[in-house]
Write a structure and sequence with these properties.
single chain; alpha/beta; TIM Barrel; eight-stranded parallel beta barrel; 11 helices; binds pyridoxine-5'-phosphate
Length: 247
């Protein structure tokens, strides 16, 4: 499937949640996600992504204030569709808000948002964020039903969940890749900017980065893990180089 706007550049949003996970393991203030935000900028990252979870297991409310004060990179706030998170987003006014599903017991965001099944609940939240000038994105599975729901909700951006692709191998990985490529083309054809993220690594990023309609990848856990061995700046630079080479 082809069509839609082709962006000339693929942005890298670095999810710094797990810097805070390590900090919180000891309850102190090191390592500080604000320092990570500065390194993202130095390494050529294009944005900071942070997920304020209901249980505050990594990023906390005061981190948002400090990140916003310390960096001029755009902040993409990942948030559940709740009144509490809506109120926090409206107070902090991040550049973008990505609405994600959230279950307290999950280890990570395991699947996409059921935008199709929750239209009535999402609509007022999407409108209030958009009215505040926040660029709204929905984190959805690469499925036609979910993309149709995003089109109906009028969001400017969708982020496709790449977890199934990242966890698949062999023929099923090819199938997952095609689903993402087809949905990215269809999103772009409908005037929605497609992003992608979850589970991306040095080994699997290039096939995703080569999808021409994608405008942004959000990558976190793997980069923070690699940073343990090579430093955060080197890890981001390598990911950036792989993405650029794939375009
Ligand atoms: N995009 C969204 C919407 C996410 O919720 C996450 C984290 O789960 C990511 C991207 C980054 O995923 P990962 O940490 O696996 O790179």
């Amino acid at each position: 499937m082809s069509g839609g706007k082709i962006p000339d550049f693929l942005r890298l949003g670095v999810n710094i949640d797990h810097v805070a996970t390590i900090r919180n393991a000891r309850g102190g203030d090191h390592p500080d996600p604000v320092r990570a935000a500065a390194i993202v900028r130095a390494a050529g990252g294009d944005g900071i992504t942070a997920h304020l979870r209901e249980d505050r297991r990594h990023i906390r409310d005061d981190d948002l204030d400090r990140i916003l004060a310390a960096t001029d990179l755009p902040l993409n706030l990942e948030m559940a569709a709740t009144e509490e998170m809506l109120e926090i987003a409206l107070r902090h006014r991040p550049h973008a808000a990505c609405i994600v599903p959230e279950k307290r017991e999950e280890r990570t965001t395991e699947g996409g948002l059921d935008a199709a099944g929750q239209h009535n609940r999402l609509q007022p939240i999407v409108h209030r964020l958009a009215d505040a000038g926040i660029r709204v994105s929905l984190f959805i599975a690469p499925e036609i039903r979910q993309l149709d729901a995003a089109i109906k909700l009028g969001v400017p951006v969708v982020e496709f969940h790449t977890g199934d692709y990242a966890h698949a191998s062999g023929e099923s990985r090819t199938v997952e890749l095609r689903r993402i490529a087809d949905m990215a083309a269809l999103a772009a054809k409908n005037g929605i900017e497609p992003h992608a993220g979850h589970g991306l690594t040095y080994d699997n990023v290039q096939a995703i980065a080569a999808i021409p309609q994608l405008a942004e990848l959000n990558i976190g856990h793997y980069l923070i893990g690699e940073a343990v061995f090579t430093g955060l700046e080197a890890a981001i630079r390598r990911m950036r180089d792989l993405m650029d080479a794939a375009r």
